[in-house]
Amino acid sequence: xxxxxxxxxxxxxxxxxxxxxxxxxxxxxxxxxxxxxxxxxxxxxxxxxxxxxxxxxxxxxxxxxxxxxxxxxxxxxxxxxxxxxxxxxxxxxxxxxxxxxxxxxxxxxxxxxxxxxxxxxxxxxxxxxxxxxxxxxxxxxxxxxxxxxxxxxxxxxxxxxxxxxxxxxxxxxxxxxxxxxxxxxxxxxxxxxxxxxxxxxxxxxxxxxxxxxxxxxxxxxxxxxxxxxxxxxxxxxxxxxxxxxxxxxxxxxxxxxxxxxxxxxxxxxxxxxxxxxxxxxxxxxxxxxxxxxxxxxxxxxxxxxxxxxxxxxxxxxxxxxxxxxxxxxxx
Length: 331
Ligand code: UT7
What we know:
Elements: E1 3-11, E2 15-18, H1 19-23, H2 30-37, E3 41-44, H3 51-66, E4 75-79, H4 90-98, E5 105-108, H5 114-129, E6 134-140, H6 153-156, E7 162-170, E8 178-186, E9 194-195, H7 209-213, E10 220-221, H8 223-244, E11 254-257, H9 262-272, H10 283-286, H11 293-303, E12 312-319, E13 323-330
Parallel strand pairs: 4-5, 4-6, 11-12
Antiparallel strand pairs: 1-7, 2-3, 6-7, 8-13, 9-10, 12-13
Helix pairs in contact: 3-4, 8-9
The protein binds oxa(dethia)-CoA.
């Protein structure tokens, strides 16, 4: 039995934050951000909005798109690196807000690869667990945990808030659609290359006043290192997942990569030799929305009539952990 994406929905907050807005807070410029990343603007939530709120809004859009009532959702997977609280899991908050008591709720923590890991998990739960409408959400509120001083400019300018959701269901029409293959990887030896160093449960207290003074409560990244890893491992994993079904890059109709940096996606496209017109990029409008980015890009492709029934689509990502992976599906 195959699983497929029965519905897709997204939600981004209405507040647009431009590069010029950020340049008022820190020593950066529209030119630097555009040249190095491609980002023009991103969305930020208003005070009082959590990742679960964005996730619920995207869920409602995905359920409507799938033509199901919320009550038909029978499993919730939420991918986020910006959970509402350290515990309990944000999927539980989302489940309560959606009014789905009793439905299993699972958080996964694979950062930028969260949507690819989550789809893989949803697919296997459909196949092995008999679930009929698995809700997969990627939701992030980054804007409440970034260092908006010049000290944090290398990371702060990159990220935006948003959510994407998919309803994953068994395919019952006998067609060739659905999720075909996946390839997942992780290498925790590189965990410190992109993480929040100040939050360390091996210490008592786990975060000190000195940490906060030094800005260690904010994410830190060795940008060049992560960039190099992304342009090496993402092409490899795309080839790996395609090989599983005997496909090649030439067979692909659409590549939907994680939106971390337009330059990364351009380099990946060049390396695998895909026509840039087949690569979906919307980082220009949303920045890096981590676990939400692939769903936002996939939904954009559909809205722009770039995604058609039967198309061979590859999703691919690398992020903190490191985690990386790719998944192919026929739309
Ligand atoms: O989604 C998770 C995975 N994340 C990624 O894949 C991100 C991968 N990395 C990147 O996208 C890039 O490394 C960045 C966009 C983060 C940075 O671009 P870069 O070309 O690697 O710049 P850099 O870090 O080497 O910094 C170059 C210069 C430095 O100044 P000096 O030392 O040359 O004087 C930085 O201090 O740019 C400076 N800089 C900035 N200047 C203006 C760093 N951030 C900024 C900024 N505005 N926002």
